[in-house]
Specification:
Elements: H1 19-40, E1 61-66, E2 72-74, E3 77-79, H2 81-92, E4 99-104, H3 110-123, E5 128-130
Parallel strand pairs: 1-4, 4-5
Antiparallel strand pairs: 1-2, 2-3
């Protein structure tokens, strides 16, 4: 009979024993499965109810156009530059506040568009957008 004698005590163990690792992971899994439902329902709070609900009506869209000559149009009505801020202030007082869309002709000087933006800001309007045309393919 031939026996192999392992005299090398310096050999490195190349296999990892997975059994303790699996045992620890299963114990942690069981602990978390028990603890999570307790944490979710630990404190019961009765939330207050509102007595009145606010209407969820969408805000109006307000169109402000500036033509090539620098004339302002609020909706389809022409308006003087001096009266623009006051007219926008009346719309800014509404609840919900309307969205203002500024349409400027491509030939209008920028100062007229900037004047419209300044009037909108001073009137208290907070939702301001610009209307442009997309490029044609």
């Amino acid at each position: 009979m031939a026996f192999e004698v392992n005299d090398n005590a310096d050999d490195v163990m190349s296999e990892i024993n997975m059994t303790p690792l699996v045992d620890v992971m299963l114990v942690l899994l069981i602990i978390f499965m028990i603890a999570i439902p307790v944490v979710q329902h630990a404190v019961k709070v009765e939330l207050p109810r509102t007595s009145s609900t606010r209407d969820k009506t969408p805000p109006d869209n307000l169109q402000l156009a500036v033509d090539a000559q620098g004339q302002f149009f609020l909706g389809k009505q022409a308006i003087a530059a001096d009266d623009l801020e006051e007219a926008l202030r009346l719309h800014a007082a509404k609840d919900p506040q309307p969205h203002l869309y500024i349409r400027g002709d491509k030939k209008v000087p920028y100062e007229h568009v900037a004047q419209a933006m300044t009037a909108a800001q001073r009137s208290g309007l907070t939702k301001i957008g610009f209307v442009t045309e997309g490029s044609k393919p």
